Amino acid sequence: MERMRGEGEGEGDPPGRPGPLTDKERLMVQDSWAKVYENRDDVGVAILVRLFVNFPLSRRFFSQFRDIEEPEELERSAQLRKHAGMVMGALNTLVDSLDHSDQVASVLQRVGKAHALRHKVEPGYFKILSDVILEVLGEEFPAVVTPEVGGAWTKLFATVNGGIAAIYEEVGWAELSASTG
C-alpha cells in the first residue's frame, strides 16, 4: 500500500481504521515474510491446524476435513495441505503487492468475493485467521517477528480485514447470509 502521509501517521484517520503502512512497516512485513515463506508448507499447515483446533466451528466451511478432529490427522490431510498452500500463496501475493494498492485491492476482491459468494465463510473468520497467523508467526519465528514487526503485521491485517468487510458489504453479505440461514 502506498505511503500517503508523513511522520504524523494516523492523524485524521477515521477511528478504528488504520492508515496505510509506512515505508518502514511495509519493509518489515516484506522482510519478515521472506523468511517465513521459505517454510511456507509447514507454516501454512501449522496455521490451519491451529485455526481448526482453537476454533473448531471454522471446520464447517471445509467439507474435505470437516470431521477430522485430531491435530495429527489434520497435519497429514492432503486436502488441508493443499488449502494451506493456497492461503500461503494468497498471502505471498498480498505481501509482494504492498507497493501497489491496485494489486492489493485485486487480491482482496478475489479472496473476498470467493469466500462470501462461493464458500459462504462468515467475515469474522478473517479476523480470527489473522490473529492465528500472527500467533503462529510469533511462536515459530520469534527472532523475525519481533513486537515491532508484529505491530506492522497487525496494522496490515486490520487494513486487509477492513477491505474484506467492504467487499462482503458490496456483494450484499447481510442479505445473502439472511437468505441462506
From TrEMBL:
Which residues span the membrane?
none
Q: What is its EC number?
A: 1.15.1.1
Can the keyword Metal-binding be found in this entry's annotation?
A: yes
InterPro entries per UniProt = Globin, Globin-like_sf, Globin/Proto, Globin_lamprey/hagfish
Recite the UniProt keywords alphabetically.
Heme, Iron, Metal-binding, Oxygen transport, Transport
| Segments for region (Disordered) | 1-24
User: Domain Globin: where?
Assistant: 20-169
**Origin organism lineage:** Eukaryota, Metazoa, Chordata, Craniata, Vertebrata
Top enzyme class, one word, equals: oxidoreductase
MF terms in GO: heme binding; iron ion binding; oxygen binding; oxygen carrier activity; superoxide dismutase activity
The UniProt similarity line reads: Belongs to the globin family.
Report whether Transport shows up as a keyword of the record: yes
> Which reaction(s) does the protein catalyse, per the Swiss-Prot or TrEMBL entry?
Fe(III)-heme b-[protein] + nitric oxide + H2O = Fe(II)-heme b-[protein] + nitrite + 2 H(+); Fe(II)-heme b-[protein] + nitric oxide + O2 = Fe(III)-heme b-[protein] + nitrate; H2O2 + AH2 = A + 2 H2O; 2 superoxide + 2 H(+) = H2O2 + O2
- Chain's gene name: cygb1
Q: What is this protein called?
A: superoxide dismutase
